[in-house]
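Same chain as my last thread, 154 residues:
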Amino acid sequence: MNPDRLFDLAAEFAQATGNAERFHARAASTTGNAHTAHSKKASKWEAAATRRREHLRATLREALRGTVTAVPDAELPVATWQRGRVEILATTDGTRAVRVRYTPAQALTAGAALIACAAITDEQTGGTLTSILSAFPPNPPTSDEPASDEGRPA
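reply #2:
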């Protein structure tokens, strides 16, 4: 989709909306036949604005269809700019910013899911995270046989 075409559609919608508002204001300040004429023009412009808005929406949906692939922002991938919100920041191609806003509960859920998926993926690709994220405290070595009689049930 040509960006100029999107701009033209948005300008047409804005013009129709502005004209409808102007004719409503004129109708409110007049009486009689002038009021009726301005009200009719306002209705025509409202209908035009509705059609243009729907055309703009459809064109935007078509232009933005598909999956957006983004990579985490290198400098600040997670931020808390707004109170009560956690933002995940990413860029599509280094120029377009993408933000996903979570509530604290959603962020916690997403974080747990990310950790679980990372662990599964890491295990399937050779397990490089084990040395970075070792158990805390470290698990003692285990053997099949107890070291003494204390470990056997009576």
